[in-house]
Amino acid sequence: MASLITQSPSSVLQGKASLKIPPAHNPATILTPTTTTSRRRNGCPMRLAVNASSVSASPETAEKPIVELEFIGEKAGADGSYPVTEASAVSGEKVLRNLMLEHKIDLYAAYGKVMNCGGGGSCGTCIVEILDGKDLLSERTNAELRYLKKKPDSWRLACQTIVGNKTNSGKVIVQCKPQWKNLEVATLGKSGSGGVPG
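The structure assignment produced for this chain is given below.
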């Protein structure tokens, strides 16, 4: 991997330049060497390329589309509102499960925390509900068709859901652990009628 000097040519000649590796995640800027100079390092000649200009990126290296996500927690706070965590991902490059774990978003219920398959699509414990933006996600996989057969179409397995398709962008709203939110609503309904929550 080539290193480029990010200082002016005069600071290179004075020995004050620092070497930097261009960020791999930013292909929109292409650095071009315009000046070279020789220096000795440990008695050995060394050629340095000096970055004095940058050129526009070609269409192939244009910015990648971003998908914005909002994750709604399954339990309401004391004020009755549900916590929301925001995240974003480059379209087509992340699986929903990995994105949630990276942002420390609670994905699994108690059983799933211990018994999940690690993202292999063989346990069905990483269920989320897509409230909005379903068209920005990959189609259901065979594993999802098997585990979510009797569940609403909006429910997905986070480990099987790819965020975006490399060309689309927009916003997705995700309900975390929808099976527990529905249980909470059902329990509140029973306790509101004088019964004991079951």
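Interim note for the steering committee: The first strand starts at residue 4 and ends at 5. The mean pLDDT is 75.
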